[in-house]
Amino acid sequence: MEAAREKGENPTYISNWNNMHILKGKSMWINEAAEIKGKKMNEEYEKAKQQVAESSGTPLDQVTLPIPQQLEIMIVELGVAKGKRIRGLGSSLRVESSHSGGVASSFATQKRLRNFKAQLVS
To answer: Domain of life here (predicted)?
Structure first.
């Protein structure tokens, strides 16, 4: 993702997953399952972007979905492995159910915990 940012691109978790599952130099998916999942996630991402663009009146090319929404799309397609780890994303991103039924990354949970602790100390 860092290389894409240096080129001025705005990568998403979904586009990064797709890039990791395409053979370099051949522009071919590593296997049929990866191709199906990647295309389905792209389709869902574009649908969600379209909904945001229509509801906010923002041009489609200026819309980027927030990370939790990207992760929700990935969870639906890739599933969750043991330890609440999203399949295909390694061990650094974990998910947990929130009270609203949505999904949040462990990083967001840790940030909220730090904020609560800071409020208690103040």
So the answer is: Eukaryota
Is-contact 100 72, C-beta < 8 A? no
| Residue range(s) defining the domain that contains residue 72 | 2-121
**pLDDT value, residue 48:** 93
Element (H, E) at 33: helix 32-56
What CA–CA distance (Å, rounded) separates 122 from 106?
A: 24
Instruction: Determine the Cα–Cα distance for residues 92 and 106; give it in Å rounded to an integer.
Output: 9
Residue found by looking up tokens 């780890």 in the block: 85
**pLDDT per residue over 53-109, tens digit each?**
999 998 988 898 998 899 889 989 988 877 676 776 665 555 554 434 445 455 555
